[in-house]
Amino acid sequence: MATWLSDLAARIMPRASTTTRAIEPATLRDASALSALHRASFHRGWGTGEFEQMLSERNILAHRLRLGGHMAGFIISRIAADEAEILSVAIDAKYRGRGLSRDLLRTHLGYLAGHGLKTVFLEVEENNRPARALYERAGFQTVGHRERYYKDAGGEQLNALVMKRDLS
Ligand SMILES: CC(C)(COP(=O)(O)OP(=O)(O)OC[C@H]1O[C@@H](n2cnc3c(N)ncnc32)[C@H](O)[C@@H]1OP(=O)(O)O)[C@@H](O)C(=O)NCCC(=O)NCCS
Q1: Across the chain, how many H-helices and E-strands are there?
Q2: Which CATH number does the domain housing residue 61 bear?
Q3: What is the rounded radius of gyration, in angstroms, for the C-alpha atoms of the chain?
Q4: For ligand 1, which residues put their CB under 6 angstroms from it?
Q5: Which pTM value belongs to this model?
Q6: 9 domain-assigned
């Protein structure tokens, strides 16, 4: 199917497009696709080399979301002792707003809990409403603020919230 046609089908038939979804551990071979997704989702995108580096580390856990053969999202965390920090999560813009990130996060947290981890932290830009809604619904609570922690594409300094969730 032509790309424009599959994109259109994905927009108007969300159920059909999610029947073939798979959430799986990401591997080194996903580095390039994850980088493309990250670059499209964030002002300061991570390169393929950065993903290769992270995905080769033993203390990194990453999951990919595939819809059909398409890489539609990912989540990546760094583990230290019995804590994890979610470093990044993104869903391809054309698949956002369908609850896909909820499933991705739920699966990822399940793996972290299965590894015996006790606590998960993350930082989120305070005006990022979809991300905050995602984390709050998943049981994360705000435990700190970081003033002027991020810079957007226009150079504006943005505040971050530190959020935490217990896994036990
Ligand atoms: C954040 C992100 C991963 C959410 O993915 P998603 O699959 O579109 O999110 P969902 O459909 O699961 O929705 C998550 C919540 O956000 C809400 N939401 C979705 N779009 C929204 C919008 N534009 N404004 C406000 N809330 C929104 C949903 O209603 C849902 O909340 P609910 O469960 O209380 O109804 C996605 O928007 C994204 O990739 N953003 C760019 C990268 C990014 O900012 N990552 C987070 C970095 S900390």
Answers
A1: 6, 7
A2: 3.40.630.30
A3: 16
A4: 41, 89-91, 96-102, 124, 128-131, 133-134, 137
A5: 0.89
A6: no
